[in-house]
Amino acid sequence: MAIGDDNDPTTFGRPPFSSANLLLNCLYYRDLQAGAELARRLKRPVEQERLTTMSNQLGAAIQKHCWDPRDSFYYTVDVQCVDRRAELIPTVKRGMDMSWRALPLRIQMFTGFLPLWCGLASQSQASAVVNHNYPADDRFRAEWGVRSLSSRETMYSLEFSSNPSNWLGSIWIVVNYLIWKGLIGYGFTHEAAELASKTARLLVDDLDRNRSLNEYYNPDTGAPLSHPGFVDWNLLVLEMLRTKVGTDGRGW
Fold first, then answer.
1. What is the DSSP string of 127-188?
2. Is pLDDT at 245 greater than 60 in this prediction?
3. What percent of the chain has pLDDT over 90?
4. d(CA 97, CA 228)
5. In 10 A of CB 76, how many CB atoms?
6. Contact 199, 173 (CB under 8 A)
């Protein structure tokens, strides 16, 4: 609860410590990398090595447990996988050992794109994620950006919710930004330019019509759904405009 994308159904409402949420793990991975870089600049090699090791271990765990080759997508995983046979049936021979520590929660949140933002995905994985899940249909790709939850999920809802805020399909500028950053990093310049344009148009229209920015928006109409006066990460659009990429791959 209150992990950032507050009502992410892969975590919200589930038992405590039952989900390895992709948002938290990807943010932590980047924090560890930043800590290692700070330690390098401060000439503290012991801390640099420790933080680098931690980031490498976390990155490997995300790749091992969260990547789903069937769907070409990254998923938050259930980490409640515990072999309880010795406790429940102690008189029966155990047989084959349990070879998995996590199971994918196959609910398609925007967080499935975050390993691209982190730079964790291989080029072939990034191509599979984008080609199979972003431009192919309207599960995520909307008129005004990227839906926070796939429109194919049964939990998809655009109702207003002040607490927790609604991440069940609404457009959030921070979502547009993080996915845009991943697209840029892996060379998807056409998709990145289109997403930057949608994001800028959404905020300009909001200012023109309502004299304000809002926290999140309807993905199909662009109508604001909550909290007029919200600024915060909406200002990430400035970076998207400064480094906007044309279809020829050059910045402009």
1. HHHHHHHSSSSTTTEETTEE-SB-TTSTT------BTTB--SS-B-HHHHHHHHHHHHHTT-
2. no
3. 81
4. 54
5. 27
6. yes
Looking at residue 244, its pLDDT comes to: 53
What value does the mean pLDDT take over residues 105-129? 97
Residue 248 has pLDDT above 50, yes or no: no
Q: Which two tokens stand for residue 162?
A: 């002040």
pTM: 0.91
Q: Which two tokens stand for residue 164?
A: 């927790």
66's CB contacts (< 8 A; 6+ apart) are 20, 22, 25, 74, 75, 76, 77, 104, 115
Pick from 121, 142, 233: nearest CA to 188: 121
Of the candidates 192, 187, 205, 206, the one whose C-alpha atom is nearest the C-alpha of residue 239 is 192
pLDDT of 250 over the 70 cut: no
Long-range contacts of 8-13 (CB under 8 A, 24+ apart): 8/76, 8/109, 8/111, 8/167, 9/107, 9/109, 9/149, 9/153, 9/155, 9/168, 10/75, 10/76, 10/105, 10/107, 10/109, 10/111, 11/76, 12/164
pLDDT (tens digit, 9 = 90+) per residue, 38-87? 999 999 999 999 999 999 999 999 999 999 999 999 999 999 998 888 88
Residue 177 CB neighbour total at 10 angstroms: 23
